[in-house]
Design goal:
- By secondary structure, this protein is an alpha+beta fold.
- The protein has two domains: about 5-175, no CATH class; about 195-275, OB fold (Dihydrolipoamide Acetyltransferase, E2P) (Beta Barrel).
- It has helices spanning about 5-20, 30-40, 50-65, 70-80, 100-105, 115-135, 140-150, 160-185; strands at about 50, 150-155, 195-210, 215-220, 225-230, 245-255, 260-275.
- It has a five-stranded mixed barrel.
């Protein structure tokens, strides 16, 4: 298949996904799922098995398209809109649950190839198995692990499968965060002596607002290695994550934490954008 044909096929597939993200009446969803996916109404969903890789691939594509929408969110929208609609009138919904779209597409000949995502999900499942052995696993994680350990999936579990891409996205973020922590634990060193002035060109890594006590913690990185922190009641709205800053202050303390390792705590800081 040449590049033009592959592009045309990809475009057609995305149009098919988009076609199923439209207004629907949740009152008939259950019947639609049974008719569309099963072909006949009499078959019980619990007895129907679906190929896992394709189901997960489609679920990932839906998640990329619209994020994750729960059935509860659709029902809530229906309830909210029904208050202003005369009895017996149709209610137009702005969204459709990922589970419903997945069921619709599984009832068609739609297929997709998301091996990179599937490989990552398999790694996540291995991690869940490790958590299970250590006894540190939630009920939801345990359920996902059980469902995905086989090559096929029961139709009754499609709702969970539809939520797996969100779980995987959060897993990726946590892994990236852990890698960042490990890097700085290995490389960050304390800067200056306590009581000395500090001056340097840094990057703002994070600005955390503690709502309860109304203060901010600014985390900076020097030379992409060394962590500096400043606790203040000031909110510098003009500075955002990733900004390059000329930072001056006084070294208040040298701490070592389980997150970034060696951290230099500053006080009486001044910030200026480094253009």
């Amino acid at each position: 298949m040449n590049k033009a044909n592959r592009l045309e096929k990809t475009t057609d597939q995305w149009e098919l996904v988009s076609e199923h993200i439209h207004d629907s009446d949740p009152k008939v969803v259950e019947k639609q799922e049974r008719e569309t996916v099963l072909g006949i109404e009499e078959v019980k969903p619990a007895k129907v098995e679906i190929e896992k890789v394709n189901a997960l691939s489609i679920a990932c594509e839906i998640f990329d398209k619209q994020g994750y929408i729960k059935q509860d969110d659709v029902v809530q929208e229906l309830q909210d809109k029904s208050k202003d609609v005369p009895l017996g009138s149709g209610v137009k919904l702005s969204k459709k649950a990922n589970k419903t779209i997945l069921l619709d597409l599984l009832g068609t000949q739609y297929t997709t190839d998301r091996h990179e995502s599937i490989d990552g999900i398999e790694q996540m499942v291995s991690y869940l198995t490790f958590k299970k052995l250590s006894g540190d696993i939630t009920d939801y994680e345990n359920l996902v692990s059980q469902i995905l350990e086989k090559d096929t999936i029961h139709l009754r579990d499609i709702g969970v499968v539809a939520s797996v891409p969100l779980m995987y996205s959060n897993y990726q973020k946590n892994e990236k965060r852990k890698n960042t922590y490990q890097y700085h634990q290995d490389h960050s060193k304390h800067q200056g002596m306590v009581g000395e002035k500090f001056y340097g060109a840094v990057k703002l890594m994070q600005k955390y607002h503690h709502v309860g006590k109304d203060f901010y913690i600014y985390t900076f990185v020097l030379d992409n290695k060394h962590i500096l922190k400043w606790l203040t009641g000031k909110n510098f709205e003009e500075f955002n994550k990733g900004d390059k800053i000329k930072l001056s202050g006084v070294v208040k303390a040298h701490n070592t934490t389980d997150y970034y390792g060696n951290e230099t705590v500053l006080t009486r800081c001044n910030l200026m954008k480094d253009i």
